[in-house]
Specification:
Blueprint: H1 26-29, H2 40-126
Main location: membrane
Function: May act as a scaffolding protein within caveolar membranes. Interacts directly with G-protein alpha subunits and can functionally regulate their activity.
GO biological process, one term: caveola assembly
Length: 133
């Protein structure tokens, strides 16, 4: 079986929007309310400094650590997948089978011991008549 060639979208890098909560644009972080404004040139250069610093720092950190982190997370999800396939799913199947057997034993005990008592009380209380007035 040949592996399929994977196509990586370098434009839309969060197609499932799993990081939608992480808004780090200038407008999402800094905002001056009406009536309180800094000088226009301060606001414009703050925008340039914010975006330049954010982009340089992110690119530096992703260059420095990105491949190692991708390898780490790939291995982490491989371990989770291995545990699910080879450990937890078979264990859950064994537990389900065992508990099904326990449920049958419990049902037999209830039907043999508790059901006659409940039927007796049911017949006893069914003969009670209440009359008003």
């Amino acid at each position: 079986m040949a592996e399929q060639e994977m196509i990586v979208d370098v434009v839309k890098r969060d197609p499932n929007e799993i990081n939608a909560a992480i808004q780090t644009n200038f407008e999402d972080v800094l905002a001056e309310p009406d009536g309180t404004h800094s000088f226009d040139f301060i606001w414009k250069y703050s925008y340039v400094c914010f975006n330049g610093g954010k982009n340089c720092c992110y690119k530096f950190l992703s260059t420095l650590c990105g491949l190692c982190m991708a390898l780490f997370w790939g291995c982490e999800f491989a371990v989770i997948t291995f545990e699910m396939v080879w450990c937890y799913t078979p264990l859950l199947k064994v537990y389900t089978i065992s508990m099904g057997l326990q449920q049958k034993f419990f049902a037999v005990c209830i039907n043999c011991c508790l059901a006659p008592i409940c039927q007796t009380f049911g017949m006893f209380f069914s003969n009670i008549n209440v009359k008003n007035g």
